[in-house]
Amino acid sequence: MSMKQIETLVFDYGGVIVNIDDASVVKAMESLGVTAFKRLIHVRKIKRLMHQYINGLVAEAETLKEMLSLCRKGTTTEDIEKVLEELCGNLPVERLEALVKLRKRYKVYLLSNINDTLWQKSVSQMNQLGYSTDELFDEVFLSYAMRKEKPSIEIYEEMTQQTGLNPAATLYFDDRTENAEAGKRFGFQSVLVKTNHLEEHQEWQEINKNIV
Questions:
Q1: Beta strand 107-112 with 189-192: parallel, antiparallel or unpaired?
Q2: How does 159-195 read in b/e, with b if 16+ C-beta sit within 10 Å?
Q3: For residues 151 and 174, is the Cβ–Cβ distance under 8 A?
Q4: Which of 7, 161, 183, 210 is close enough to 188 for a disulfide, judged by CB 3.0 to 4.6 Å?
Q5: What is the rounded distance in angstroms from the CA atom of residue 187 to the CA atom of residue 166?
Q6: Closest by CA position to 1, among listed 193, 189, 192, 209
Q7: Which phi-psi region, left, alpha or beta, contains residue 87 (left: φ > 0; alpha: ψ -120 to 50)?
Q8: Residues 58/115, Cβ–Cβ less than 8 Å
Q9: Which residues pair with 189 in a beta bridge?
């Protein structure tokens, strides 16, 4: 599809807009005594807990309590919450500047699997850089608020119903294969982003041409 036919842009957050560092999360968890975290992250229970925490579909207190059982004695839920702030990542101001400019030509939406705590911290990061979500996005769609998560078809359907966007004229950026493929099946023009390297993709370069 020609970029001239694109009307709407949909962005994932972690790994696309914000740079994330899984290694820093592993290091931080190991600092709490979960010495095998790097190995355990692939174990079903750990994967489930991290998934639950990030997506916000299960009460955070419940998930943190389970995580606490894996840590050294004396660790508190506050300790874990502080460590998990690493998940907020590093937010390049250049991407925020680009989003503001892109809104002059396109409808721009955010679609993210994220919990309330991480989202509020992410909003604070944006504010510290001088931007509000209202400046960056026409609307945000977040898993914890919608009680749905990618890659379920329901989350794409709800976003489409609320915005009236045309999937065929929508460019969708996500760094998870399963999400990008789900978006493609739904009818989006999907771009599988190399995590933290949005600028390397031709589609990103194309939509930013001649934007001032």
A1: unpaired
A2: bbeebebebebbbbbbbbeebbebbeebebbbbbbee
A3: no
A4: 183
A5: 9
A6: 189
A7: alpha
A8: no
A9: 171
3-state class percentages of the chain: helix first, strand second, coil last, to nearest 5: 55, 15, 35
- What is the C-alpha separation between 18 and 95, in angstroms, rounded? 8
Domain chopping of the chain, boundaries:
8-20+89-210, 22-87
Class of domain 8-20+89-210 as given by CATH: alpha beta
The amino acid at 27: K
Amino acid of residue 157:
E
Per the structure block, which two tokens stand in for 42?
Answer: 């692939």
**pTM for the whole thing?**
0.86
Residues 6+ apart with CB under 8 A from 22: none
Say which amino acid occupies 126: M
pLDDT in tens, the chain (212 residues): 567 799 999 999 999 999 988 777 777 777 777 665 555 454 555 666 666 777 777 777 777 787 777 777 888 888 877 777 777 789 999 999 999 999 999 999 999 999 888 899 999 999 999 999 999 999 999 999 999 999 999 999 999 999 999 999 999 999 999 999 999 999 999 999 999 999 999 999 999 987 86
Residue 1 C-alpha from the chain's centroid:
25
